Amino acid sequence: MHQNILILDFGGQYKELLALNIRSMNVLTIIKPGNIPISEIIEINPKGIILSGGLSSVYDEDAVRCDPELFKIGIPILGICYGAQLMAYILGGLVAPCEIKESGCVKMNIDPSSQLFAKMDTTQSVLMNDNDCITKLPAGFISTAYTGSSPNAAIENTEKKLYGLQFHPEVKQTTNGMKMLNRFVFDICGAAGDYTVDDYLNEQMSAISRQVGNESVLLALSGGVDSSVCAALLSKAIPDRLVCIFVDHGLMRKNEGDEIEAAFSDRRLKFIRINAEKRFLEALKGVTDPEQKRKIIGREFISVFEEQARVLDNIKYLAQGTIYPDVIESGAGNKAKVKSHHNVGGLPEIMDFKGIIEPLKGLFKNEVRILGKRLGLPDSLVQRQPFPGPGLAIRIIGEVSKEKLEILRSADAIFREEIKRSRLKPDQYFAVLTNIKSVGVTDDNRTYDYAVALRAVKTKDFMTCEYMKLPYSTLDRVSARIINEVKKVNRILYDITGKPPATIEYE
Ligand code: XMP
Predict the structure, then answer these.
(1) Is 507 in the pocket of ligand 1 (CB under 6 A)?
(2) Is 319 within the bounds of a domain?
(3) How far is the CA of 40 from the centre of ligand 1 (A)?
(4) Same domain as 181, residue 47
(5) Catalytic residue positions?
(6) Which atom of ligand 1 approaches the CA of 428 most closely?
(7) Domain contains 501
(8) Residue 422 is part of which domain span?
(9) Residues 136 and 100 in one domain
């Protein structure tokens, strides 16, 4: 087991960013709900603990709280926003609503003799986002920073190695945030920095070989980053004993099915491609409701997979490309469901396997990408933007048909080509076939054709996003090309909504 920093999650939106930042320092980070028992924390044996931010006030009845014993076990602790308030409150300090709420980037004055801030300028720019402030320090603490409205923007008790920050060090708006985290992790916790993606790969490879022995593993390959990297890892760990089933539902983007097949053709694995377009389109005929479309695709997918898997020999294990964000248990309760996501998860329930193999379960997406590169996968797969399991079916509003798919594929390919040429870097971008037909004119003739919407977003976590302000020159070129090259489209729209209130996909 590598040394680790444990993040206790109190529901704030930045816990994954925090974990990623610390992992980028070669230190393993683990995220657990804020209220896990002390015995579990001791078992994890962290070098340091970070209490994340959260949406609650420490006085809320349903606020998630940690065990007060946490502050007595001698492990260094850094509380951030709610985490800092919780620590102060539990240890006998006072927390109250800020008189003037500071939100956004503010100037903060620090005490450079604090180990967290050593050798930094006395004035720092930090991101604040709090309703409450620490108004009275617990015994043994001193204040090491203040802002215009918060006299205790940072607090510490060096003897007990307890630190609290009223601001977010993990975001880039806090200019020296990474330095502060670095000080905590290395200087205060004494972490060695002993964790790399290569170590992870080697550990997984030997664990899988041990677990699988002479038996074979089945993987549902979607061509997405996670399942592709999972396939590459397994084909290295247990060559010749991996069977990949790629269900091509006919809802992929232009040439995508062939690209996926080509990427795995020279690896030592059995690759089965099932061309099931006809079956999926048949099942989707006449269906317009987004949730129903998603459910039908999920159900069909499982049926095709199950039929194929049943005829294979000696398959004892099922592999899945589950990644760390999929398994983090939230400490903040469940949010209302907006869409039923379909991916290849959920398969084990339908079949009788001896075990499940999830070799990426400890990695974040960017680490999965690094691993994919190490394993020799092409950029076209490893750097792929997310593509939803139900594919283009949820980018065609209303009923899906072969004709609509062809129109959307061509328009989407042009948009992606032009974005690539422009060197702009949206995190996700695609075309959508709206169900709107409108009147236009081409060569003096009336047309009555589809409107295509373009969507390009910037996001870190895909839970929220901003629309990207693409230059008009790029939009002009994409629009002209789609209108000229794609039949049955006479209008191009650019989507300027973020999430919320919209979602990234249209259905
Ligand atoms: P929304 O539309 O919910 O999308 O804002 C957030 C992110 O999730 C992707 N997405 C999916 N991914 N199966 C997936 O594997 C799905 O059913 C699915 N639906 C949405 C979406 O592309 C975006 O990146």
Answers:
(1) no
(2) yes
(3) 33
(4) yes
(5) 81, 168, 170
(6) 24
(7) no
(8) 396-494
(9) yes
CATH number at residue 432: 3.30.300.10
User: Do residues 17 and 150 share a domain?
Assistant: yes
The burial class, CB within 10 Å (0-12 / 13-18 / 19+), for 421 is exposed
- Number of structural domains the chain divides into: 3
Same domain, 359 and 429: no
Q: Which of 297, 387, 504 to mutate to test the pocket of ligand 1 (most atoms within 8 A of CB)?
A: 504
Q: What is the Å distance from ligand 1's center to 337 Cα?
A: 13
| Residue in 252, 296, 341, 455 to alter for ligand 1 test, most ligand atoms within 8 A of Cβ | 341
The residue with tokens 């870097």 is: 425
Longest dimension (CA), the chain: 82
Domain end, chosen from 161, 188, 215, is at 188
Query: How buried is residue 159: exposed, middle or buried, by Cβ count under 10 Å (0-12/13-18/19+)?
Result: exposed
Q: Domain for residue 388, yes or no?
A: no
500 is a domain residue: no
Could you report the per-residue pLDDT of 312-356, keeping only the tens digit for each?
Answer: 988 999 999 989 888 776 544 434 556 666 665 555 565 678 888
Contacts of 141 (CB under 8 A, 6+ apart): 88, 91, 93, 155, 156, 157, 162, 164
Main-chain dihedrals φ then ψ at residue 315, nearest 5 degrees: -85, 120
Task: Write the pLDDT tens digit of every residue in 267-291.
Answer: 899 999 999 999 999 999 999 999 9
* Whether the CB of 345 sits within 6 Å of ligand 1: no
Span 438-496, pLDDT tens digits: 999 999 999 999 999 999 999 877 878 999 999 999 999 999 999 999 999 999 999 99
